[in-house]
């Protein structure tokens, strides 16, 4: 019995997934109860009268190239939010299994665990050490967990977690838990993805998204990268035609051509703006500290968070109040905008 079979929910292992209509070949489709006619004005390639092919093989191939992994290691999801939810549903039995998180961190891990009825084990990041992982405490607490969600760079603190610590953790938990590293912001960190380690460490998984550095949040396209056995398991749970045809076509088009050059230049601008904004905000009397960030946002330690939020709001700018996190009673998170937008924020807080 493989470790995936031992960790997965037995109900999911037993599940016979929905059998979607077959795809491929030039045959006439009289098997899916679709309309035989395109709607006038339907400019899509495939025709929106047809269901999209699940896990579009050309898009999967394209994403595999982008992330430098094999297509069998990859599941396309509606944003990484959906992949988080699918992982929890695949591995955690309600009222029996647990998800481990390291707060303050991205909120969807806890939400998905709660929806599933899984227990939540929290091992806070070490605020005094730049929000680093508390490795011994994670190892102790992980005994109860099937899934660990580690976010690097972490939202909302902005710091990278130590890659060696994550890998050692995966080694310690081999066969006992899946260590999921959420790399939603990795493109802004100038660091390699941990996805390359998955063939050697099959209990490691990585989440990537097109919502941040790729500028495609509206497309809702995320990718789970994992051992092919994990992918096959999670694929049993995803809705049969999850990713719409319009998204498949738009994303395939937008990931090609000279856009990688545009993307690289925008990432460089954003990182330069992050450093400029960080230095300038630190000089504001309303702000005690700007935390170092490897992402496209900054965590502000405010002397008066209400005043920061109100001043920004008065200038037509929305910031994120993150004081709800126990470790961040002073926290406001600001996304890096265009140089003009960042200037507007500086003007408001001066
Ligand atoms: C760490 C992290 N993971 C995942 C997501 C969700 O990304 P997606 O748009 O791919 O669902 C976010 C969104 O803010 C995030 O901050």
Which strands sit side by side, in order, in the main sheet? 1-7-6-5-4-2-3
Low-confidence stretches: none
Total E-strand runs: 11
SS element count, helices? 12
- Stated plainly, the CATH topology of the largest domain is called Aspartate Aminotransferase, domain 2
Give the helices and strands, then pairings.
Layout: H1 3-7, H2 10-14, H3 57-67, E1 74-77, H4 79-91, E2 98-101, H5 108-116, E3 119-122, H6 135-141, E4 145-151, H7 163-172, E5 178-182, E6 204-209, E7 222-225, H8 228-235, H9 245-254, H10 259-282, E8 287-290, E9 297-302, H11 305-314, E10 320-321, E11 331-335, H12 339-349
Parallel strand pairs: 2-3, 2-4, 4-5, 5-6
Antiparallel strand pairs: 1-7, 6-7, 8-9, 9-11, 10-11
The site of pyridoxal-5'-phosphate has 12 residues, from helix 4.
Label this structure with key terms.
350 residues; 12 helices; binds pyridoxal-5'-phosphate; globular; Aspartate Aminotransferase, domain 2; 11 strands; Aspartate Aminotransferase, domain 1; 4-stranded antiparallel sheet; 35% helix; single chain; 7-stranded mixed sheet; alpha/beta
Give a verbal description of the structure.
- This protein is an alpha/beta fold and 350 residues long.
- It has 2 domains: 3-254, Aspartate Aminotransferase, domain 2; 259-349, Aspartate Aminotransferase, domain 1 (Alpha-Beta Complex).
- The protein has 12 helices and 11 strands.
- The protein has helices at 3-7, 10-14, 57-67, 79-91, 108-116, 135-141, 163-172, 228-235, 245-254, 259-282, 305-314, 339-349, and strands at residues 74-77, 98-101, 119-122, 145-151, 178-182, 204-209, 222-225, 287-290, 297-302, 320-321, 331-335.
- The strands form 2 sheets. Strands 1-7-6-5-4-2-3 form a 7-stranded mixed sheet, sandwiched between helices.
- Helix 4 runs parallel beside helix 5 and helix 10 packs parallel to helix 12 (339-349).
- The longest helix has 24 residues, at 259-282.
- The protein is globular, with a radius of gyration of 22 Å.
- The mean pLDDT is 96.
């Amino acid at each position: 019995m493989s470790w995936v079979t031992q960790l997965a929910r037995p109900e999911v292992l037993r599940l016979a997934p929905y059998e979607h209509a077959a795809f491929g070949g030039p045959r006439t489709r009289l098997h899916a109860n679709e309309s035989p006619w395109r709607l006038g004005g339907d400019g899509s390639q495939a025709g929106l009268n047809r269901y999209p092919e699940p896990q579009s093989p050309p898009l999967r191939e394209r994403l595999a190239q982008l992330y430098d992994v094999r297509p069998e290691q990859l599941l396309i999801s509606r944003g990484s939010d959906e992949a988080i939810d699918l992982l929890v549903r695949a591995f955690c039995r309600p009222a029996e299994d647990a998800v481990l998180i390291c707060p303050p961190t991205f909120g969807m891990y806890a939400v998905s665990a709660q929806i599933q009825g899984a227990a939540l084990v929290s091992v806070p990041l070490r605020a005094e050490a730049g929000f680093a992982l508390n490795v011994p405490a994670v190892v102790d607490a992980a005994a109860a967990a099937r899934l660990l969600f580690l976010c690097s760079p972490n939202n909302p603190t902005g710091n990278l977690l130590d890659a060696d610590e994550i890998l050692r953790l995966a080694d310690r938990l081999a066969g006992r838990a899946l260590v999921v590293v959420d790399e939603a912001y990795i493109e802004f960190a100038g660091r390699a993805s941990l996805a390359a380690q998955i063939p050697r460490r099959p209990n490691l998984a990585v989440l990537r998204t097109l919502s941040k550095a790729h500028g495609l949040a509206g497309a809702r396209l995320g990718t789970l990268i994992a051992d092919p056995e994990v992918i096959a398991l999670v694929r049993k749970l995803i809705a049969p035609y999850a990713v719409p045809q319009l998204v498949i076509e738009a994303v395939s088009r937008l990931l090609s051509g000279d856009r990688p050059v545009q993307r690289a230049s925008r990432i460089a601008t954003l990182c330069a703006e992050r450093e400029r904004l960080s230095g300038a905000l630190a000089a504001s009397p309303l702000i005690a500290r700007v935390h170092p960030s490897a992402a496209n946002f900054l965590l502000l330690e405010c002397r008066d968070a209400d005043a920061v939020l109100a001043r920004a709001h008065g200038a037509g700018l929305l910031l994120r109040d993150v004081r709800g996190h126990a470790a961040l009673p002073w926290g406001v998170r600001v996304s890096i905008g265009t140089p003009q937008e960042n200037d507007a924020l500086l003007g408001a807080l001066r």
